[in-house]
Amino acid sequence: MGCDGGTIPKRHELVKGPKKVEKVDKNAELAAKWKHCGLSQEKLRRPIVACELGRLYNKDAIIEYLLDKSAERPNAEAVTHIRGIKDIKELNLTDNPEWEGERRNAKGDRYEDIHCGMFICPVVGLEMNGKHRFCYLQTCGCVFSERALKEVKTEICHKCGDPFKEDDVVVLNGTKEEIDKLREKMEERRAKTKTKKSKKSKAVETVSTPAESIAVAGPSGSSQDTNASTVSATKRSIQDMQGKSEVFKSLFTTHSSAKRSKDQISNWVTHTPYHF
Q1: Most exposed residue of 15, 120, 149, 199, measured as fewest CB within 10 angstroms of its CB?
Q2: Residue 188 and residue 182: Cα distance in Å, rounded?
Q3: SS3 at position 223
Q4: What's the pLDDT at 221?
Q5: What is any one GO biological process for this UniProt entry (predicted)?
Q6: Which CATH number fits domain 26-101+114-196: 3.40.50.300, 3.40.190.10, 3.40.30.10, 3.30.40.10?
Q7: Can you give the residue ranges of every domain in the chain?
Q8: Which residues contact 36 (CB under 8 A, 6 or more apart)?
């Protein structure tokens, strides 16, 4: 049973200790977040979108999720806050000229830099690979590095020129604390939109109530007066519409005013010229 030929086993070969927990490389994990979709785990490809929490997705993956939410997906919990297309924003990214794509190391005989990003900041030129913090604007979808927004302070987008505010800046792939803050802002924004919609619906209901209901609420004499005034107003409006329609019809040749009488119509005279 082993130990033949005078071999002396060591202690770690005889006594099995607890298994070592494999540590995940943080740099590789960050690079994966910036190069892979947060829902399908596939490589990012245009068009690329981002949610209100700053996560990156492939647009086709989000559309498939919205069409069929019951299907099983590897990371469906990360998109439960996305209710529709309005909850995502298509990003306006700047390509990295040094990015050669996957064809660069097709044979596997060359060094592949995992930190080489597909996109860069259009202002500073930093690569979007996880080493530097990047943000996007909810107004236009343009993506910049946080350093560029701090160094060149302005309320106009550096790329497209659209105006924006500080609340429109969303950090991409932020920390847990930053994601929690973004979630709070998202919930507050959605609560405000709900209150606005409820106020608009109430205003529409009050405007859509007919004048007859208002007349019934008052005394009998006042209700008759209001009914008479409404009838006269409707008659006037009908007459005005008829007058306008006659003016509009007179612009065409088929109208009676455009037709000529028999006296105004002249006979046609033909003349055949002869050339010698």
Answers
A1: 15
A2: 10
A3: helix
A4: 46
A5: DNA replication termination
A6: 3.30.40.10
A7: 26-101+114-196
A8: 42, 43, 44
